[in-house]
Amino acid sequence: MELDLIRGIWDYHWWGNRTLFDQAAALGEAAAKKDMGAHWSFPSLKGMLAHIYGADRIWLARWKGESPTKLHGDADFSSLADLRTAWDALEAEQRAFVGSLGTATLARTLDYKSTDGKPFAQPLWQLLQHVVNHATHHRSEVAAMLTMAKGSPPSTDMVLFYRQPKR
Amino acid sequence: MSVALLGQLYDYHHWANRRLFEISANLGEAATSRTMGAPWSFPTLKGMFAHLYGADALWLARWKGSSPARLHDDGDFPTMADLRAKWDLLEAEQRAFVDGLAEADLTRQFSYRSAQGTEFRLPLGPIVQHVVNHGTHHRSELAAMLTLINGSPPDTGIASYCLTVAKG
Asked: Which end of chain B is more exposed for a tag (fewer CB within 10 A), N or C?
């Protein structure tokens, strides 16, 4: 069951990301680069989405035994279209990783170093939950920014995802 | 392990809620009732917390077999202190429910009617996760509102929680 729970939240994660990405992309590249204020974690829609990509990417690398020192962000992508291409490839790699997990792998302690070289050790399942939760935090900011730009986007509440007909 | 996974997810949920609640409560009742603008799901800190309480209470009731027609909200709580007292009780009840789950409960389907009367049938385990995810969405808004009022609050990520509180 724990594998189903983890796979379920990851399916939700990819759906939530795409739902909001598409909304941001529909506004156009200029709107996605607009500075929306200082109280956000990242000031533009593109910057926020690039951060979700960057965090997802660094964690996937850590799960595969690497400890990258660079966190990708806004400056690595000239446009949302550019980010989309990179993200599609990352998502495919994530799907392969999550699909290959077994119960024993979930409980495995993962050793990794933060970008500034500090060592950490945590069970993999905590980190698999963390990445989805991290993105929900920033998806909430994306939703509020979209609300400012053109009105409230469709909800990405997890219950709506589970209420959909079987995927 | 599934039950332990959800148990720790709720430890995180309660920790993060309390972390932001305490910072907000310290700002005083007037600040938490101040309207913060239009892009938020709920316009005040108190309203946002009251919604978190309301959603948690509603889902807990549904898991226990009832379908309340009403979602508690800002209007039910005159002050943050009043909300805190009720939330402490709810948190204990939620904790007992999650701790009482057995592996077989997680795949069990439960039925409920939404406040509008629509009937739904969903698996319990994923919806127990949903409530925490729902909380994170609104905690993000609380964090941004607190940033506007008095600067960025401390992080409420799961990785931080696991490293600083649960110690792995």
From this structure: C
Number of domains observed in the structure of chain B: 1
Residue located via tokens 């495919």: A92
Give the fold, CATH level 3, of A2-163: Four Helix Bundle (Hemerythrin (Met), subunit A) (1.20.120)
Note whether B138 contacts A: Cβ–Cβ < 8 A: yes
pLDDT at B98 over 80: yes
**Chain A within 8 Å of B6 (Cβ-Cβ)?**
yes
A48: closest CA of chain B, how far (Å): 13
Amino acid identity at A43? P
Whole-prediction pTM value?
0.94
Name the residue in chain B with its Cα closest to that of A148: B39
State which amino acid sits at residue B144: A
Contacts of B127 in chain A (CB under 8 A): 159, 162
User: Could you report the per-residue pLDDT of A55-98, keeping only the tens digit for each?
Assistant: 999 999 999 999 999 999 999 999 999 999 999 999 999 999 99
